[in-house]
């Protein structure tokens, strides 16, 4: 694979634009001082893969609902009704997600690793930082597959138009407000959420930011902050976390949606996409599909595979299981009690130093942006963000 060394962005500049998570706990830079060189054809393949995979996830989600397979994919019982409600009504629009993909470079076929559909991060890095790196290094800033910010603006408009064409937004918009929330304590979550709020405002919405503990929820009246009612609530808080740790809030949100007092973003049905157990459903529905890796809820006999919790993040509790059943590598974490899925092992593209590169392709109505993370065989929260350049 081809890499281009570049000058790193100045830390003071990063701080000024709100990117405060630029340095990892080992005092190394989170953003790599290099760019992955991607051809136009490779960028197009990533775009097409994201679009095809999304259509497949929709079919798989419908299959889960039609066959009442919620338990099989780990959906908490107190969210099942809300998942169904949000799926059946078109107003519950999926704002954005991120496909994690292996391959795509040097002729290596693209394979789905998973879909971060509920609370995907790396938004700021992908939309702003890698674009700024091109500009800072006096490179052509348009030479990226990176329409994430514009894609978000357009998809916010679709919350109102409910169709691809957004030209009637101003005609249809009736002053509806979006409240953006996260849990206090993470500058990354804060600034990711505030960037989304900025995109919503650019789309034409009235938008505000508040921490979740500042927000009031009422079954019959809806969602309030500072005495103001909000018709939409975006939460960078995982649905399964709400279900398990905030059961009362999960019930209130179900009633709010049922009473048509607010629309929650991302919708509850994105938890179907988020569950890694859907990888088995996809393989059952599309066996041997070129974009998929074999997956099951039990070890794959005689096949090297990756064991991962169905609801886990940043590589926690992920392990590599060799063909003979021995575990060759394992990450610690807090998800050991979770059910797991076993996915056939597939090598990432790697550089001359043996570092592995995973592509992250954002989806907002369509594939809209590309970025990379690099690290070891199992990517974790110490993995680096790497931008790209099309040439």
In short:
With 391 residues, the chain is α+β, with helices and mostly antiparallel strands. It is built from eleven helices and 20 strands.
Characterization of this structure:
31% of the residues lie in helices and 24% in strands. The protein is α+β, with helices and mostly antiparallel strands. The strands form 4 sheets. Strands 1, 2, 3, 4, 17, 18, 19 and 20 form an 8-stranded mixed β-sheet that branches. A hairpin with a 5-residue loop joins β14 (319-321) and β15. It is globular, with a radius of gyration of 20 Å. 43% of the residues are buried. The model has no long low-confidence stretch (mean pLDDT 94).
Q: For the terminal residues, how far apart are their CA atoms?
A: 13 Å
- Overall, the morphology is globular
Rg estimate, integer Å: 20 Å
Our estimate of the beta-strand percent is 15-25%
**Low-confidence spans: pLDDT under 50, at least 5 residues?**
none
The structure class reads alpha+beta
Total count of helical runs of at least 4 residues: 11
- Largest sheet data: 8 strands, mixed
E-strand count: 20
Percentage of helical residues? 25-40%
Mean pLDDT: 94
List keywords for this structure.
391 residues; alpha+beta; eight-stranded mixed beta sheet; five-stranded antiparallel beta sheet; 20 strands; 31% helix
